[in-house]
Each structure stands twice: as structure tokens, then as C-alpha cells.
């Protein structure tokens, strides 16, 4: 079924622009979905480019918009920010709400192939096809897109950009899960959503995609060196660095001393990322 028109849930002025939250029926995910759009002041006079932000585990559309401090830089650069949710909502599959790293809040931006997840958990098609078409039809966007995200959403941003080489003008990530086929979060999510075939998993792994196909797009990654998930082996930036060095991909991996995994870290460097995207958009 086609998606319904977005129903506005709230509209809040911020740095001269407007932050709106919207709900619509998603035909891709078979449930209602909520998303956020920040429109800069320039959008009152002309169509503007968009930066997609994919959030991490446990997030909704709200974490980034409220905690990253991105509105000022987006307003100044004339860039819209689009924040999808991180999973289907309103569904009640067995075990869906029991863990923070699988099921609700943890869609991992893949298209699930395994029952019962495959009926709803199609976040990749949702963020690369259905939602882009919806926002393009209902907001003053000029069709140029960039993509970024955090942790699980950093993985999602890298994978969306790598699987769609001509689509995004730029890509960046904060503390991304760089090699999900080799970390506990990824192994749990991919075995649940995609089944046991690890060759299939590689199609959703940034380091594996770069090893197989390379990339023309430069990649900006910030990673705190006091990040507990880095210590736990969930993020593996060294795998991304190795894949990029072997494939000749331009990776700017910035290890940031003393920073952890939180939105304090993201808000400290978000202006650099918006500048990175602004020069490409
Ligand atoms: N055990 C924690 C883990 C959740 C967490 O840290 N989530 C991060 C993303 S981690 C990778 O995708 C996050 O962005 N949290 C939201 C926030 O506003 O900080 C827990 O259950 O909270």
C-alpha cells in the first residue's frame, strides 16, 4: 500500500527555521512511522538540500534533533535535516521489545528476510526509498542529499551511501559500527534479521562493501577514544581503516581524545560534519 500523507504532530521554531514531527502510514514497513524534518530559514524562499541523519540503538526521531545542537549550523548552511525513527513501531512481534539491541529501536537499517521480522523490519527500503519520496513530495527540497548517523545509524549511513554510489553527495558518521559482521551487536542483529548465511551479512557491512566494491566518495568519521563501545569491540574503526587503505578510499578517521559515545561527543563535532556536507551539497 502507498504511504499516507504526513500528519503533522508538532511544529517548533528553532534558529529561524522550523522543526516538525510527522506521522504517516508506511507501506514498506506495514505500520505507522514517525519522522522529523528541520527546515532552515532559506526553505521559506527556495528549495534546499537535505542531510539525512540515521540514529543509533534506542533512539527515536527525537534524540538527534534535541541533543545534537545541529539546528544552528543547518540554518546557517541552508540545509534541511531529516530524522527517521530507528525501527518499525506499534508492532508486537515475539521478543520485539525485550532487548535494547534487537527489535524496536534497533532496526539496523537492513531489509529483514527472516520471519517474523521481514513483514515489518525493512528500514533500508524505508530510509532510501519510501521516506525520501514522501519528503520530496511534501517539503521544499531540491533533491540533493547527504547522509550521516551515529553508531548503528553510522553503520546505516555508510551502508546506504556505499550501496547507492551516485545517490548521496557526501557521507559521514559518528562512532559507526564499522564491521557489524565481526561484532556482538551485528552478529545478533544480522542473524535475527538476515539468517545464518554470513555471506548475505556482508552486503550490509561497510568494511566488507568497501573491500568488495571500493568507493569514490570521501568518508568523514569521528570516533571518541574513551568510548565504552569502542573498548568492547562493537565499533571496529580499524576494520574500516584497513578496508579503505586497501581499496584506496579517502577516509578521514578522526580519533577524538577523551570523548565517549554520547550526544555530548556528537554535539562537539556536528558543525564540522555539517560543513563537510555543505561543501558537497
Ligand atoms: N545500554 C544503553 C545503550 C544505548 C545507547 O547507548 N544508545 C546510543 C546509540 S548506541 C549505538 O547505536 C544512543 O544514541 N542513545 C540515545 C541517546 O540519546 O544518547 C541503553 O540502553 O541506553
UniProtKB/TrEMBL annotation:
Alphabetic keyword roster: Hydrolase, Serine esterase
Cross-referenced Pfam families: Esterase
EC number(s) from the headed UniProt entry: 3.1.2.12
GO molecular function: carboxylic ester hydrolase activity; S-formylglutathione hydrolase activity
InterPro entries: AB_hydrolase_fold (IPR029058), Esterase-like (IPR000801), S-formylglutathione_hydrol (IPR014186)
GO cellular component, one term: cytosol
Superkingdom, taxonomy of origin: Bacteria
Any GO BP: formaldehyde catabolic process
Reaction catalyzed: S-formylglutathione + H2O = formate + glutathione + H(+)
Function per UniProt: Serine hydrolase involved in the detoxification of formaldehyde.
This protein's name: S-formylglutathione hydrolase
Organism: Tamilnaduibacter salinus
